[in-house]
Amino acid sequence: MTESWRIPTVAIAVDLAVLTIRADQLNILLVTRGVEPYAGRLALPGGFLSSDDEDIDAAAARELAEETGLSAKDLHLEQLRTYGAPRRDPRQRVVTICYLALMPDLPLPLGGGDARAAQWVPVDKALSRKRQLAFDHAKIIADAVERARSKLEYTTLATAFCGPVFTISDLRQVYEIVWSESLDPRNFHRKVTGVDGFLTPTGDRAATNGGRPAALYRRGPARTLHPPILRDGNP
Amino acid sequence: MTESWRIPTVAIAVDLAVLTIRADQLNILLVTRGVEPYAGRLALPGGFLSSDDEDIDAAAARELAEETGLSAKDLHLEQLRTYGAPRRDPRQRVVTICYLALMPDLPLPLGGGDARAAQWVPVDKALSRKRQLAFDHAKIIADAVERARSKLEYTTLATAFCGPVFTISDLRQVYEIVWSESLDPRNFHRKVTGVDGFLTPTGDRAATNGGRPAALYRRGPARTLHPPILRDGNP
DNA sequence: GCAAAAGTGTTGATGGTACACCCATGG
DNA sequence: CCATGGGTGTACCATCAACACTTTTGC
Fold first, then answer.
1. Which residue in A223, B179, B197, B230 has its CB near the most CB atoms, within 10 A?
2. Alpha-carbon separation of residue A41 from A37, A96, A103, A203, B138 (angstroms)
């Protein structure tokens, strides 16, 4: 608590839940804490809000750039929820505003100035070893994953996990991995090509990997899906 | 600014967007500010978070009880979003965690200890006179209404606007008013009675208001709607 | 040709809309 | 009886899951 004079009585933090798909699994970006409390444990990247003129959305974007080297306009970033249980940080009262980011699988570390040991951890693994996570971050991760899962249903966000050009198979695998559910490739194809503005054909074709080469697409202008693509597990 | 010594450099507020249906309109609970800034303007009820051991959800519930006299377990209360633009409060940096509450139309003031002038204001009126609202509260109200609108689609939340017992007509009017859209009474009836756990019949019937008396229902155990009841305006 | 993946056509089930029709009450 | 709102039946249409089938590549 020697640093408590530097931080207001109720401190405000901004934490990031950054998701990607890697090796057929949903992964989350975690850092290893170097200091107490929870030294050595895995935690969401984040930091305290400075009291200057920085907007909280901008603070989240800045943290994201520091961790990944990516600008917020290159990927999806949205506010998830604010967590403020009284003793979630044993040092003092901390209220943390959490953000959800989705990005394609890019190499890490991405040359950010902040060279803390950020690593991709499969979400399943992180959530099955809750004791290794700092603070209430297991709960935050679970909320982030659930938000991502449900957003795939009625928005075009799945494309945020893909690179700039992708095949319909790539997109289907995003859905299958995030939902842990297999989808019929033929019906999926029809469904996504039927939504206006979801996908823009590039005209090119992907290198074949054993069969007929797939058409390549970019993400289209649509942001919501009409009709939605619904999960099975719902009822 | 005489009280600024009591508030940390970055202050945390909890604000409430309390919605109800009154006189066939969606209404929001607003207070008239007595002090600068924005003295005399309408604002969302709320207050600063104390740095003691109060959870932020509990702080929202306490504010709600002070304004309406109702306990949080009697009505729906959920976190909406956190707003933290740098100059949203001209005095100092304030980050506000906003909550959305839905309640049936009950008389106000509800005998809370805090006798500030809380009043119901039709949402349309509030949003068409944005200049009369304090801070960024017009934006918050718009977000709250949009959240309520979309939650009616896939949750059973519409019952939160009704009293403990209600008719299917009452429920339909909730949808019609919140969505500003008229629905076919016959198809609506079939739809809601077809969702398992949405409605529990009481066995009683309402006093007639000109026609056959309607069956009375309580809210059932279901919290999500399968299938959803979708708005028209979507595509 | 054969395997493998992409993409199309078809069919039967399901859920939605529109609307005709019957039910129960007050006046 | 009539007016009024509550509630059911039904016909038609859109969407969807399931799966047979065709297309396009590598080997």
1. B179
2. 9, 18, 24, 47, 42
